[in-house]
């Protein structure tokens, strides 16, 4: 039964295509010597025209689809190229902005150097000491540059710390906020003096009598006493000054002038007689 049905379908397809071929031949023969079509010719033209129209539409759709596909590939390639160029331009722009920011910082350091006693040396911070016991940083200058232990380090905003150890090309600086650090300071407005010690995140000013005039917002600068830091370098601003409690001295907390979390460059004051170890 299946073979019989299959054979019947083949015969029908053969007859259909045979009819199309016959109509096509009739149409060609009739167009050679005649200008007018009769009914069979018109029927043949209608059938062949319909078939050709369908074939043309299919061919056109395939052509348009292929063109759209190739155009889509080109668009993807162009987008990839544009994204790559955009990333390159962003990188160049970031480098330019970083260069401008660095130039601004170095220009401010140059202005700061002019207010400090010569000679001075500009250094870049290249690392932080991993030790949890001391707050120290490492700079790219060492004994071969003339850096010695005891030399003070400052930045545009104010006091940074003091050199503790050196190697030929590097040096370690103990930050002023370290609890082991201490320097002489004074209240810029009233000239009241005291000892500024590191408190971890900020400073404490000690040995200031209760009858001394110290108020919140007063500026604290180096006094120059002791010959370590030059006089007048900013240390910070009074955040709290309390006279209550026992004892002779006030409790004074100072917010640092320098942002120790964003240090990049600093100035070493090349003192002639540092506190050598």
Could you explain the architecture of this structure?
The chain has 277 residues and is α+β, with helices and mostly antiparallel strands. The chain folds into 2 domains: 114 residues, no CATH class; 158 residues, Rod shape-determining protein MreC, domain 1 (Thrombin, subunit H), CATH 2.40.10.340. Helix content is 39%, strand content 25%. The protein has 2 helices and 12 strands; from the N terminus they run H-H-E-E-E-E-E-E-E-E-E-E-E-E. The strands form 2 sheets. Strands 1-2-5-4-3-12 form a 6-stranded antiparallel β-barrel. The longest helix has 76 residues. The protein is rod-shaped.
The termini sit apart by 112 Å
Question: How would you name the oligomeric state of the polypeptide chains in this document?
Answer: single chain
Q: State the share of residues found in helices, binned by percent.
A: 25-40%
Q: What is CATH's topology name of the largest domain?
A: Thrombin, subunit H
Low-confidence stretches: none
Coiled coil: 72-99
Protein name: Cell shape-determining protein MreC
Function: Involved in formation and maintenance of cell shape.
Family: Belongs to the MreC family.
């Amino acid at each position: 039964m299946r073979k019989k049905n299959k054979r019947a379908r083949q015969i029908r397809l053969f007859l259909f295509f045979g009819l199309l071929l016959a109509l096509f031949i009739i149409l060609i023969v009739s167009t050679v010597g005649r200008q007018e079509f009769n009914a069979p010719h018109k029927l043949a033209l209608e059938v062949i025209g319909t078939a050709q129209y369908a074939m043309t539409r299919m061919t056109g759709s395939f052509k348009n689809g292929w063109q759209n596909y190739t155009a889509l590939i080109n668009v993807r390639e162009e987008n990839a190229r544009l994204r790559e160029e955009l990333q390159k331009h962003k990188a160049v722009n970031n480098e330019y902005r970083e260069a401008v920011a660095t130039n601004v910082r170095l220009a401010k350091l140059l202005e700061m150097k002019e207010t400090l006693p010569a000679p001075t040396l500009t250094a870049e911070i290249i690392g932080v000491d991993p030790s949890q016991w001391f707050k120290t940083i490492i700079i790219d200058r060492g004994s071969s540059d003339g850096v010695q232990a005891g030399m003070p380090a400052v930045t545009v905003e104010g006091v940074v710390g003091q050199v503790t150890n050196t190697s030929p090309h590097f040096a370690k600086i103990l930050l002023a906020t370290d609890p082991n650090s201490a320097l002489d300071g004074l209240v810029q407005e009233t000239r009241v003096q005291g000892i500024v010690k590191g408190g971890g995140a900020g400073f404490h000013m000690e040995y200031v009598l209760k009858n001394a005039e110290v108020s919140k917002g007063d500026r604290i600068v180096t006094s120059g006493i002791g010959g370590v830091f030059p006089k007048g370098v900013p240390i910070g601003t009074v955040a709290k000054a309390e006279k209550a409690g026992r004892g002779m001295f006030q409790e004074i907390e100072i917010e640092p002038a320098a942002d120790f979390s964003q240090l990049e460059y600093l100035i070493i004051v090349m003192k002639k007689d540092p506190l050598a170890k």
